[in-house]
Amino acid sequence: xxxxLISSDTIVALATSPxxxxxxxxxxxxxxEAIHITNxxxxxxxxxxxxxxxxxxxxxxxxxxxxxxxxxxxxxxxNSYTKExxxxxxxxNSAYIIERVIHLLMKQGARAAKPGEFxxxxxxxGGLDLSQAxxxxxxxxxxxxxxxxxxxxxxxxxxxxQLKKLREDLVHFASLIELELDFSEEDVEFANRDQLRSLITxxxxxxxxxxxxxxxxxxxxxxxxxxxxxxxxxxxxTLLNALLNEERAIVSEIAGTTRDxxxxxxxxxxxxxxxxxxxxxxxxxxxxxxxxxxxTREKMRQARLIVYLFDPTQDSVEDVQTQIAxxxxxxxxxxxxxxxxDLITAEQRLAxxxxxxxxxxxxxQEGIDDLKDELLxxxxxxxxxxxxxxxxxxxxxxxxxHTQEALEKVLYGLDNPxxxxxxxxxxxxxxxxxxxxxxxxxxxxxxxxIFSKFCxxx
Length: 458
Fold this sequence. Notes:
Layout: E1 11-14, E2 24-30, H1 34-41, E3 42-43, E4 54-62, E5 65-75, E6 86-92, H2 95-107, E7 111-112, H3 117-124, H4 130-141, H5 145-155, H6 158-182, H7 193-212, H8 214-222, E8 224-230, H9 236-244, E9 262-268, E10 271-277, H10 287-302, E11 305-310, H11 317-328, E12 334-338, H12 346-352, E13 358-359, H13 368-379, H14 394-415, H15 420-438, H16 444-451
Parallel strand pairs: 1-7, 8-10, 8-11, 11-12, 12-13
Antiparallel strand pairs: 1-2, 2-6, 3-4, 4-5, 5-6, 9-10
Helix pairs in contact: 4-5, 5-8, 6-7, 6-15, 7-14, 14-15
């Protein structure tokens, strides 16, 4: 493990969100001098004599000047988040008070914390492994029940525990293979090759399942990108407004009103859907509208799901079938929507039934709940078991893919006349890539890249 980032400084930062309308702000310190520094500016009980996990009322003072009445929470290391002494000062949520208290603590010897430095210390001091630390950031960023559950499961070690078991089994056989190298002249085998093959095969299957889980895990974490597409004036913007239940997009009878994409999110039964309203698809001489149409096609190629709208008062069934064929070429799941169902005749409906569409009236907000149910059905996430280990981080899936490649080499070596030293090298490579996920193997650059994305105070 890298140790170049370990610092003995006592750090301080605002732990609550700045600028938020609320009654209380929390200022956090961590480090060997956290309690001493706080005690020098706190008027109340002597904090140096108080036990861990206690809260104390008093005042923060700069000399004789009382800055605020506060509550001070003590967490004596190693029984704290960072495994160091941690103090949390609850002040009134005044920007002036917060600035003065932090400045006062820095005058007493603390320094401003960097983004993610509290969680970095928790990792470096053994309180969390790297995948759990990354899950902390995911938990803070979670905006749906699904993303919250997945982040919580990972932060509590579900993913880590599974990887730990895989590594332990691999390490056992790696040590036996390494032992064979020490007795290479005697030509003995300490590692049963059949047992090793069975183990590698089992681990390979588990890793393949974890890699496959990334598609759903990424969607649960970041939301489902859904493009609302169709010809001009079929009701795309009206549908976006109906889904969001607000006037998010400009609605006009004039074709080509939407020139660029408009995005917003809604939560449907715990799953976040990111809807993208796009410019109408048609041939046009208008340069700006043409750019909007091209951007629409680009967004459709990037989408997880396409909601394609048709207007039965504009298009015949044959026209609609032609448009559907173009969408099918993208190989992306899509929902066929006939909008303006309140204007359709019984004869027209009978003709369109052959397409098996969903009928809605975005303007009248009819069929919107049916559309939401169909969206859940299309992404197949409603019945996901959130207790299952699921990969949500691109860094993790890349490390798993590298592990898989190394395991394939081990299996090849077991089925072909490959010497123990090459087998050992490939097993070590597998262990290396698994270790990158949990932080058993890491570098300062990697840690700085990961924790720089955290908010300050966490």
